[in-house]
């Protein structure tokens, strides 16, 4: 979808004089669909579906964010927010005001408290770089090119999470501009309800301009990946599942099968074939046990093995997620304990038996993720044992084939599914409808009540929306 598709999108009729007044108030760019630069300003990593706002504001700081929110409110327009734009598929908005935070970067490490204050548009690689000289690391995920704020406030499944819990469990304070245009410094003491709800409820209560997060004493991991030929998939998946039942909480890992396209961008041995990757991030204080721990996987005879000690600053090499934007369709579910029958259920519906999906993966959960955090928050589904993701690329297949293929896989996994989802991985066509499944039912109800206090008109609705509890308002639950 793009701005040259006038059938699908008619910008709201906003008085140009009022837009001019906003331009004068805001330091960053303010662009309408007619303006040059509009498409670049609204673009994110996910190309399958992008926001198409009436107005996009490239915020440079809190004052710009406040101006944009106040403008939206005074025109009864909804507000969307975008960091690095990895998650827009399924929830991208048509119309309204889009606030792009990518200019709002900055990290301040506090060595006495082992924390970092991070501005809204900052990516993990910046925090990792600033924390490393002090022997510290943030709870970043597989791809360090993601923005910190949305990842963290949606939960944040880190390479270190089985040892430390979700990134959202390690937030000290949050600066947020709420729907009334006020900047609030939110802590456990100042706004207990909002502090609880923002950590898990993410963008439903306002635009976050910065957060203060814990750093942990990690400098070096034992990690990397083992790559196996697709022909060994059943054996590798079975062994992997048995192995995850035995590993300590310091061991985080995942297993993925990928179908490689037959193009020169990939090594000849992989082109047009399937490979299974096991990704490892072992984060113990002493790494001596690592080689013994991974032995059962190595014994399967990988065709490539990059396991070894690596500084946390290079942790992005473990998953080596592609840094360039793409047309991606993804679906997800959380799973409980798995057995051989679950492996068969997945593999029977995957290449080479079927042409889709292109990628599917299991990430091992449990450990500290299964325990409540020191300060309660809204992140749900802590009982899940594995995260299942299935991903296909629209450059390589038709969406009308991809969706049924993903659905078939999720249906086959129903016997093992907990019915829950992690907000950060909800990107497919049903993302907007699936929001409840990210929360425990009582917590979802509480989120709607907090929403009714801080955003009664549902100004922040171009997202994984939690509507305000029924207050008689037309947009409420
Ligand atoms: C390659 C890849 C690897 C990934 N790996 C992991 C992983 O290991 N662990 C994990 O947990 N997740 C992972 N994810 C998922 C990722 O965390 C989410 O997609 C996340 O939302 C991406 O952040 P973003 O800034 O790009 O999001 P955007 O698409 O920019 O925004 C996502 C949502 O966050 C909201 N938002 C953004 N900024 C703000 C703000 N300042 N204030 C309020 N709301 C805001 C927006 O309203 C929007 O709805 C991965 C995704 C990809 C594509």
Q: What's a concise summary of this model?
A:
The chain has 477 residues and is an alpha+beta fold.
What this model shows, in words?
With 477 residues, the protein is of the alpha+beta class. The protein has 3 domains: 16-100, Uridine Diphospho-n-acetylenolpyruvylglucosamine Reductase, domain 2, CATH 3.30.43; 107-214, Uridine Diphospho-n-acetylenolpyruvylglucosamine Reductase, domain 3 (2-Layer Sandwich); 220-436, 3-Layer(aba) Sandwich (Vanillyl-alcohol Oxidase, Chain A, domain 3). The protein contains 12 helices and 17 strands. A hairpin with a 4-residue loop joins β5 (107-110) and β6. It binds flavin-adenine dinucleotide. Keywords: FAD, Flavoprotein, Oxidoreductase. Residues 49-218 form the FAD-binding PCMH-type domain. Pfam families: BBE (PF08031), FAD_binding_4 (PF01565).
């Amino acid at each position: 979808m793009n701005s040259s598709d006038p059938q699908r999108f008619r910008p709201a009729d906003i008085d140009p004089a009022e837009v001019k007044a906003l331009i004068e108030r805001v330091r960053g760019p303010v662009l309408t669909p007619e303006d040059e630069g509009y498409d670049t300003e609204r673009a994110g990593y996910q190309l399958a579906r992008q926001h198409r706002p009436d107005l996009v504001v490239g915020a440079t700081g809190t004052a710009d964010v406040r101006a944009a929110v106040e403008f939206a409110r005074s025109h009864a327009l909804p507000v969307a927010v975008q960091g690095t734009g990895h998650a827009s598929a399924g929830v991208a908005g048509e119309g309204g005001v889009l606030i792009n935070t990518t200019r709002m970067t900055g990290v301040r490490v506090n060595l006495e408290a082992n924390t970092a204050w991070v501005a809204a548009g900052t990516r993990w690689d910046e925090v990792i770089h600033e924390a490393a000289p002090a022997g510290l690391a943030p709870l970043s995920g597989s791809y360090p090119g993601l923005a910190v704020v949305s990842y963290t406030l949606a939960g944040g499944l880190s390479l270190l999470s089985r040892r430390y819990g979700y990134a959202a469990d390690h937030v000290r304070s949050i600066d947020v501009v709420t729907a009334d245009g006020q900047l609030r410094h939110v802590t456990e003491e100042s706004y207990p309800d909002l502090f609880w709800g923002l950590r898990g409820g993410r963008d439903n209560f306002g635009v976050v301009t910065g957060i203060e997060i814990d750093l942990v004493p990690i400098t070096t991991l034992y990690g990397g990946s083992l790559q196996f030929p697709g022909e060994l998939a059943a054996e590798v998946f079975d062994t992997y599942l048995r192995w995850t039942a035995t590993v300590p909480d310091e061991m985080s890992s995942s297993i993925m099968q990928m179908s490689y396209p037959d193009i020169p961008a990939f090594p000849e041995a992989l082109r047009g074939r399937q490979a299974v990757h096991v990704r490892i991030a072992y984060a113990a204080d002493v790494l001596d046990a690592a080689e013994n721990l991974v032995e059962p996987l190595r014994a399967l005879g990988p065709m490539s093995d990059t396991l070894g000690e690596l500084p946390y600053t290079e942790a992005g090499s473990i998953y080596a997620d592609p840094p360039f934007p793409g047309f991606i369709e993804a679906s997800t579910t959380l799973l409980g304990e798995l057995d051989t029958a679950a492996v068969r259920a997945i593999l029977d519906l995957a290449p080479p038996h079927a042409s889709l999906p292109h990628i599917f993966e299991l990430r091992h959960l449990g450990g500290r993720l299964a325990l409540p955090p020191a300060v309660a928050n809204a992140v749900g589904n802590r009982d899940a044992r594995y995260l299942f993701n299935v991903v296909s690329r629209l450059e390589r297949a038709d969406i009308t084939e991809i969706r049924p293929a993903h659905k078939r896989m999720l249906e086959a996994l129903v016997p093992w599914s907990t019915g829950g989802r992690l907000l950060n991985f909800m990107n497919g066509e049903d993302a907007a409808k699936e929001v409840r499944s990210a929360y425990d039912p009582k917590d979802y109800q509480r989120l709607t009540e907090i929403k009714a206090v801080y955003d009664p008109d549902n100004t922040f609705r171009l997202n994984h929306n939690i509507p305000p509890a029924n207050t008689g308002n037309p947009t409420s639950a």
